[in-house]
């Protein structure tokens, strides 16, 4: 297949057509049939830690490459400006290193995002003694 046609949808259709890249912006997902022609569905989530999507006019680019290592075809390609650019096959060791690196990048991204959303609470110097003092005063007031 030489290229793909962009089709924006809200929901992914039940039956996919070869050569069409379906994009659901609402659900942050792109899906297409494998470009080798094997008929397998290829789902590429769109997001900060997954694939990025660039649409220019009627052309679409997905980044990074699409490596269908779990498919029998083991196809590996890029979709750049609606064209399929074939890439080389990769060894299993290289695939595993890439998967591990991707997991580390995702973990770092979410750790940083979580730290920004929920910064650690700062303890006031002597906070424990202040709380103890307040509690002791309350107990004295009520004769506890």
Describe this structure in words.
With 144 residues, this protein is an alpha+beta fold. Helix content is 29%, strand content 29%. The protein has two helices and eight strands, in the order ββββββββαα. It has helices at 92-117, 127-142; strands at residues 5-8, 20-24, 29-33, 41-45, 52-56, 59-67, 76-80, 83-86. A hairpin with a 2-residue loop joins strand 5 and strand 6. The protein starts with a strand and ends with a helix. The mean pLDDT is 86.
Beta-strand fraction estimate: 25-35%
The beta-strand count equals 8
Number of H- or I-type helical stretches: 2
Note poorly predicted spans.
Answer: none
Lateral strand order in the biggest sheet: 1-2-3-4
Tell me about the biggest sheet? 4 strands, mixed
**Gyration radius over CA:** 26 Å
Mean pLDDT: 86
Shape: elongated
- Given the helix and strand composition, which structural class is it? alpha+beta
Helical content band:
25-40%
Tell me the span between the first and last alpha carbons.
Answer: 82 Å
Question: SSE order, as H and E?
Answer: EEEEEEEEHH
Q: What's the number of domains?
A: 2
Q: What's the topology here?
A:
Layout: E1 5-8, E2 20-24, E3 29-33, E4 41-45, E5 52-56, E6 59-67, E7 76-80, E8 83-86, H1 92-117, H2 127-142
């Amino acid at each position: 297949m030489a290229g793909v046609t962009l089709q924006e949808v809200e929901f992914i259709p039940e039956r996919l057509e070869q050569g069409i890249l379906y994009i659901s912006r609402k659900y942050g997902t792109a899906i297409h049939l494998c470009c080798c022609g094997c008929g397998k569905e290829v789902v590429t989530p769109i997001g900060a830690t997954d694939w990025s999507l660039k649409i220019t006019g009627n052309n679409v680019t997905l980044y990074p490459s699409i490596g269908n290592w779990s498919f029998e075809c083991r196809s590996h390609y890029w979709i750049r400006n609606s064209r399929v650019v074939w890439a080389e096959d990769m060894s299993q060791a290289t695939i595993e290193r890439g998967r591990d690196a991707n997991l580390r990048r995702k973990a770092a991204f979410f750790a940083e995002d979580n730290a920004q959303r929920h910064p650690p609470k700062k303890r006031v110097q002597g906070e424990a003694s202040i709380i103890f003092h307040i509690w002791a005063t309350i107990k004295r007031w009520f004769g506890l």
